[in-house]
# Entry
Amino acid sequence: MSNTHPIKDEAFVDAINNPTVFDITVIGGEVAGLTAGLYASRDGFKTLVLEGDVASSVDMPGGALMLTSEIANYPGFNSAEGAELIEVMREQAETFGAHIKEERASELEISDGPGKCHSIKSNSGTVYKSRAIIIATGAVARRLGIPGEDENYGTGVSSCATCDGFFFQDKVVAVVGGGDTAVEDALLLTHYASKVHLLVRGDNLRSTGPEAREIVDHPDVEVHWNTTAEEVFSEDSKVTGVKINTKGVESTLDIDGLFVAIGSDPATGFLDGSGVPVEADGYIAVNEASTAILGLEGRGIFAAGDVADRIYRQAITSAGKAAQAALEARAYLNSSRHKI
# Structure
């Protein structure tokens, strides 16, 4: 790696050894954050990755992938654990000089003009200055909060049918939810599972598309109206059933897997009062043709991964967008004057 910094500005050279001043700060240590950190540091930029806090259920290092027991759809990783992928990506980013800290952002202050440093305060109390920022904090799938759910998460309980449906070939599964995601997940799972139970809390689906009509008539799907999941049962680290409550009557479904599809919450709480616009559902809106945050174009603020993605929410799409964000941050830094 070259020791020549891509920016020749004298004020920056004076600050290059300042441990709290960076060219690019990546907030988040999931696949998106580590990919952005890799690309930014490999380009020679002084890069900070705030990977999260192990004590946090929202911003933990590695994100939800750390709870995934097997990955089969990420190129180059066949039947690997999620933690293995994260560790390889982390080491690769560090190889190129990324400064990775086990801290999470608690406050963000956007500078008042292009070319000036933004401020990021972490939960350690440290204030970092950065010329560009990539927000990659991800989104956390909502949990049911029932007994047996957390203990079996990643080994039979999942929040991603696209990721894990393949592992339930000819099995019986249940999907919890009544919105678009739940309906889409249930239909997807019919391509793998022999039987799909759809557990709907109310007496109708919130999903209103053609898939909603299809799911009700599907021969491999049984819809349970006015039904909630109460407890997950397992044996030898394998899910064996779920207790359900239908209008006050409890019973048990024998299943091999439970998919929770009740929505996700983007990790954007730290952006309150920052000036970064967040939509009503918590997601960050980015420019259609780039990863620049809408309303902050030209300010060096980008977003990538699940925090800005309601639809795909895949590790590979997060990595692709993160690489794009890092390249756009490079273009921004190389085309602007950056004095502290």
Q: What stands out?
A: The radius of gyration is 22 Å. The first helix runs from residue 10 to 15.
